[in-house]
């Protein structure tokens, strides 16, 4: 595998891989495919632009999130309490 076919030299402005060419202008390396980039956020969000906010659905969703967070806090507190009980040395009389 030659180093000319996979040049690491890139354009400093657009980061496009640069290839070597011969005196008659033909490229020594295979043409490099363009890399895929995601569409602009504005185009993606435009699909959701005409949706109407349903207050009752939003309230139920928010209540679910709050309950889930409360359960997670309670579970974390129980884990911390159990860990602190295990780490304390037991006293024997």
Structural account:
The chain is mostly helical and 93 residues long. It has a domain of 45 residues. It is 42% helix and 0% strand. The protein has two helices and no strands.
Draw up the topology in text.
Elements: H1 41-46, H2 55-87
Which properties best describe this structure?
93 residues
Given helix and strand content, the structural type is mainly alpha
Measured distance between first and last alpha carbons: 78 Å
Average of pLDDT: 80
Q: What characteristic shape results from the CA principal axes?
A: flat
The major β-sheet equals: none
Total number of strands? 0
Order of helices and strands: HH
Range of strand content: under 5%
Which spans of ≥5 residues are poorly predicted at pLDDT below 50?
A: none
- Count of helix runs: 2
Rg value? 30 Å
Helix percent reads 40-55%
Summarize the entry for a quick read:
With 93 residues, this protein is an all-alpha fold.
């Amino acid at each position: 595998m030659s180093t000319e076919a996979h040049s690491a030299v890139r354009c400093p402005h657009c980061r496009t891989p640069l290839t070597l060419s011969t005196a008659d202008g033909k490229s020594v390396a295979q043409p490099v495919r363009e890399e895929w980039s995601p569409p602009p956020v504005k185009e993606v969000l435009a699909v959701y632009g005409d949706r109407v906010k349903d207050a009752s659905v939003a309230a139920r969703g928010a209540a679910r999130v709050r309950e889930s967070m409360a359960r997670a806090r309670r579970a974390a507190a129980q884990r911390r309490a159990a860990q602190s009980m295990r780490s304390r040395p037991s006293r024997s009389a």
